[in-house]
Write a structure and sequence with these properties.
The protein has helices spanning 61-71, 86-98, 158-170, 182-187, 193-197, 206-213, 220-229, 270-283, 288-302, 315-323, and strands at residues 10-13, 17-24, 29-32, 38-41, 50-59, 76-83, 105-108, 115-121, 124-128, 147-150, 175-178, 201-205, 234-238, 244-248, 251-255, 332-334. By secondary structure, it is an alpha/beta fold.
Amino acid sequence: MNTNENQLDFVAIGDITTDAFIQLDAGAFVSKDSIGNEQLCVNFGDKIEYENVTVVKAVGNSPNAATSATRLGLNTGLVTHMGDDDNGVDCLEQLNTEGVSTEFVTIQKGQKTNYHYVLRHGAERTILIKHYKYDYKLPKFTTAPKWLYFSSVGEDSMQYHHEIAQFIKDNPNTKLAFQPGTFQIKLGYERIKDMYAVTEVFFCNKQEAKKILKTNEDDMLTLLTDFRKLGPKVAIITDGPNGAYAQDDTGSWQMPMYPDPAPPVDRTGAGDSFSSTVVAMLANGMSLPEALVRGPINSMSVVQYIGAQKGLLSKDSIEDHLVNAPEDYIIKQLA
């Protein structure tokens, strides 16, 4: 356990899990509902043979972000809660292997550690999740970190959001990046408006943005502006193959995807790698456009592997990819 009291550059906050990736074979198929949503289907009563299982420890939005930031050269820690089971021991060992400080990990006696099953079919996946209940509490930092990165937690975490928001108010030199998870998206914004009010950088995708704002608005600039009205100084919304859109006080930008060198293997963690890379680059003193140019490169690499962390790149590797980027990989400033 790291007991270094020096200021950390980046501390991620959120749940940790193990992902078991189950590759389904031809016994599973994709169908579409009446409005065009794709569905993963199997027939009741069938014995569906799977091709393989890949188990990946110490993942989740925030652990992924912490690992990403560590590989990008930041002094990084993770605030998370886990059980005292073998799964928790394995997750803790993996964090230490990656160089993520575990001094803020809380081990809850008698509880289990989250374990998810990822049903893979081609490059797409459906995740079966289970969030165990933890006694969420923010640790006492000897020195406030430069950045907090807050993401997915369980549904028993309402007070935790207010505690984190108060911490940012009390420590104005600490910047907050907020990438809402499933529960936080369901909440909308009214119940955690204090969180939005103190956020430096906010991330979500277009579908999530519309759910949070409870709107049918499709114009990206309008969505970005609406989020910034809630408090975030920087709003960033991804839109699948259309890339990412961002806005701050100096302007708005659209950043295309970095081209895939081969068809994606697994899209798990693509959003985490993008958002954590942007924050890491901002933490390194880059401007928003400079950070946005580098984010999609890490996402491109991550989707070439099973799991959210194997493909995470170093800072030097990202710079190499940027130097060798195609001519049309350029950021566009929007009106």
